[in-house]
Design goal:
Layout (H helix, E strand, L loop, with lengths): L15 H12 L6 E8 L9 E2 L3 H9 L5 H10 L4 H8 L6 E4 L5 E2 L6 E6 H6 L1 H25 L3 E4 L7 H15 L3 E2 L2 H7 L9 H5 L4 H11 L5 E3 L5 H17 L8 E4 L4 H14 L6 E4 L5 H9 L6 E4 L1 H4 L9 E10 L2 E4 L16 E8 L5 E8 L10 E4 L7 E4 L2 E5 L2 E5 L2 E2 L6 H12 L17 E3 L1 H17 L1
Parallel strand pairs: 6-7, 6-11, 8-9, 9-10, 10-11, 15-21
Antiparallel strand pairs: 1-5, 1-12, 2-4, 3-5, 3-19, 12-13, 14-15, 14-18, 16-17, 19-20
Length: 485
């Protein structure tokens, strides 16, 4: 079963404690109590300068059809731990929460809410697992893909990792996320069918092995696909056989008939050495426009090193190290209760930990991104209480929430709310953009970051500050807790 199929019922894809807690809320008469949860993350993968928001479309699809089937109810009844009243509640379940989220493709930073759910506590708690699943996975892969794309410095990057992804969803949604992150397409055909990610690909070594000679294999392929002839040249001997045969076929069947002079792909060996030799051989043969594509266990670090060595590579096929984000395979998003509502009044909640980084920021919140008007570059994000307004017609002071003496007064800036309404009382109010729109948005928003935030090594820290009112609220709660001990 492919879980990316939009007709698949994923209602029961939850941690069991979400059901036991839901039953508990119901039994204590709390099912209509309003709660607010934030989804956020604490650390950027690979010690990067930013992450990329992705996975929202799949979360929306899930919430739109969230309901319990007869089979679901029967399964829960057979567990013997849920009350009949609770099961009847689930039979009549209708999602009625408010949902706010940062749009896909937007650069995101630690400790700011990227999704906020506000509604009946059973519902808001219940969707924890699926929200984390979609946002964690796709944000991880989109972030990794963008690092790879930036390392390639304008050269094409093709995602080729389906066969080594963690399952069908990892392959399909990973291809979607990678395209949001900036890849040019994917070898995963179903990602094109479902999400519009351009499907790309040519041949495997088995094609070459299937014919009596390498030349014959290239000839037959060129005759079939003269408009996009990419020949895999490392099945036998790249320099002595593969490239010479490719040159011969390009001249005889491609260039002589007026088609573009194709490309070669090298999938093994020393990519820097082989690409340099290949380029010289192609140029000497007059095939100066023939492209050189490299694959084989690539990531941003390998690509960066290849380009430092002036390897004449035109495109990269990146597989398992992208689709699994091998260097850092976990996006540490978490989902925490931050407020309840009683008679229309927001009651902030805080989680306190012996680990300072795990202390949560309480309250129902909004996130603003502040931009320099002159350079159109992002200055900082400010997390505020939801009804706070940052007036960009007046000077505004930002400060480090940990080292509060670090302050800066901003003028000549503009403020943008990042958390957009997605659902209101369970009704979708958000226009889901096409994947090309998301990809374009991501490129434009990353371009608004300072170059220092784009470094792979020790990037500039982008500040996520708290408004004064929110900072005061958090520290009042911390003080109250300390005094109660």
């Amino acid at each position: 079963m492919i879980l990316t199929d939009k007709d698949t019922n994923l209602t029961m894809l939850v941690d069991f404690y979400e059901l036991t807690m839901a039953n508990g809320y119901f039994e204590h008469g709390m099912e209509d109590e309003i709660a607010c949860f934030d989804l956020f993350f604490r650390r950027i993968p690979d010690n990067g300068g930013f992450a990329i928001m992705a996975g929202l479309e799949q979360l929306i699809d899930y919430l739109e059809k969230l309901s319990f089937t007869t089979a679901d109810i029967n399964y829960l009844r057979n567990k013997g731990v849920f009350s009949e009243g609770f099961l009847r509640y689930l039979e009549n379940f209708e999602f009625s929460c408010d949902v706010y989220a940062i749009p896909e493709g937007t650069p995101i930073f630690p400790n700011e809410p990227i999704v906020t759910i506000k509604g009946p506590i059973i519902q808001a708690q219940f969707i924890e697992t699926i929200a984390l699943l979609y946002i964690n996975h796709q944000s991880l892969i989109a972030t990794k893909a963008n690092r790879v794309v930036r390392a390639a410095k304008g050269r094409s990057v093709i995602e080729m990792g389906s066969r080594r992804a963690q399952g069908s969803d990892g392959a399909v949604l990973g291809a979607r996320a990678a395209y949001i992150g900036g890849t040019n397409g994917s070898a995963c055909t179903i990602a094109d069918s479902l999400y519009g990610v351009p499907a790309l690909g040519t041949m495997a070594h088995s094609w070459v092995q299937s014919f009596d000679t390498e030349y014959e294999a290239f000839e037959k392929f060129a005759q079939l696909y003269p408009n996009n002839c990419v020949l895999l040249v490392d099945t036998y001997d790249t320099l002595k056989s593969g490239i010479p045969n490719a040159i011969k076929v390009f001249k005889e069947f491609i260039v002589s008939k007026g088609y573009a002079p194709g490309a070669i792909r090298i999938d093994s060996g020393d990519a820097a050495y082989l690409s340099k030799r290949a380029r010289k051989m192609l140029d000497k043969a007059g095939l100066t426009e023939t492209k050189v594509i490299i694959s084989n266990s690539l990531d941003e670090y390998t690509i960066k090193d290849l380009l430092i060595q002036n390897a004449p590579i035109d495109a990269f096929g990146v597989g398992e190290r992208l689709i699994t984000s091998k260097t850092e395979p976990v996006f540490g998003g978490v989902y925490k209760l931050v407020a309840t509502e009683v008679d229309g009044e927001i009651i902030p909640k805080i989680k306190i930990s012996n680990n300072p980084e795990k202390v949560t920021t309480p309250g129902f919140k909004q996130v603003y991104r502040l931009f320099d008007k002159t350079k159109n570059k992002a200055i900082a994000d400010v997390v505020t209480l939801f009804d706070e307004i940052i007036n960009d017609d007046e000077p505004y002071v930002i400060f480090d929430p940990d080292y509060t003496w670090k302050r800066k007064e901003l003028t000549n800036f503009y403020a943008v709310k990042l958390l957009k309404p997605i659902f209101e009382k369970g009704k979708l109010v958000y226009h889901k953009p096409k994947i090309e729109e998301i990809r374009k948005h991501s490129h434009e928003e990353i371009d608004k970051l300072w170059e220092e935030s784009l470094r792979f090594e020790k990037p500039h820290k982008f500040y996520v500050d708290l408004s004064q009112d929110l900072w005061d609220l958090k520290h009042v709660l911390l003080k109250q807790h300390s005094e109660s001990l």
